[in-house]
Amino acid sequence: MTSFWNAFAKPANTLAPQESDGALHLHRLTNVALLEIKGPDAVKFMQGQFTCDIQEITISHSSLAACCTPKGRMVALFRIAQAKPDCYLLRLPVEVAQSFLAHLNKYKVFYKCTVTLLEDWGVIGLSGDLDSLPSLSSAVPTSADSCQTSDGLLLIRPPGNLSRMECWLDSAQASKLLPDLDNQCAAGAVEDWERLEVLSGLGEVYPQTLDEFIPQMLNLQALGAISFKKGCYTGQEIVARMQYLGTLKKRMFLLSSETITPAPGSAIIDETGARIGSVVRSAQGQTLAVLDKSAADGKVLRLEESPTTALQVLELPYAIEEVSNTKKKL
């Protein structure tokens, strides 16, 4: 947790959580952090490290993106947005923020830019009927990945069919906005927001799964997080070969896990006890897991840690174009 939450962790209201689907909830996302990359070489540096096309990131358009090893395995998955010219913010799990900061600092030696963990910024999530927010309704972005940017405040619409929005804000903006938002919204738990993320089919990379997945395994090609037209970046050869020459044998599925919330990296097994995949993230009985595609088709799936719990495959909220080429299997 960054120092931002020392001042803003407690809601200013006592509204009870609401049960209706349209009820507004404010989620203090103490589980994420923001990195800042800024300087005249920021775009050039990031273009050589990240899977998305940085040239397409503007003050009105954000993107999911990944950073990979030379072998194409992800060391971080994050959302990136532009705060101002030559200044970009990356939102990612707080558990990997420091390791990713160290990773980026190894590569930026020859670039005129800085990479910093922002201690005076935080992220809140708003879910429910966003049009009923008097203080922000005119600024609510309406399409996936779009954003509204002002000094010290970024409003970002995540992909998916659920009505929700991320607010990235500094301490000054938090002092202005949070009291009113607390009075307009019921308090929502981090776990509730995590469930919305899972239901939206949005994966994540945690310390338990560092260097485990290539981007296509987490369906990033379906979420606009990979550019196959930009120039080279670290891991690009592996990612491109998979898309054009390989056959993707594993990908991320949405599963119902009843009341079980397995940790990232937990094993998924079939009826014989053979491992066929691993958990990406999970919340409140909903789980995203990377599975062998053949094993996910009609077979009994279970958690190794709870073999009596059967997992059911659910439909993701987006279409996936299968990566399957006959020339070569990777």
From TrEMBL:
Protein's GO biological process: iron-sulfur cluster assembly; methylation
Keyword terms, alphabetized: Methyltransferase, Transferase
InterPro entries: GcvT/YgfZ_C (IPR029043), YgfZ/GCV_T_CS (IPR017703), YgfZ/GcvT (IPR045179)
Listed name of the protein: Predicted aminomethyltransferase related to GcvT
Alphabetized GO MF terms: methyltransferase activity
Species per Swiss-Prot/TrEMBL record: Hahella chejuensis (strain KCTC 2396)
Domain of life (superkingdom): Bacteria
Signal sequence annotation: none
UniProt KW Ligase keyword: no
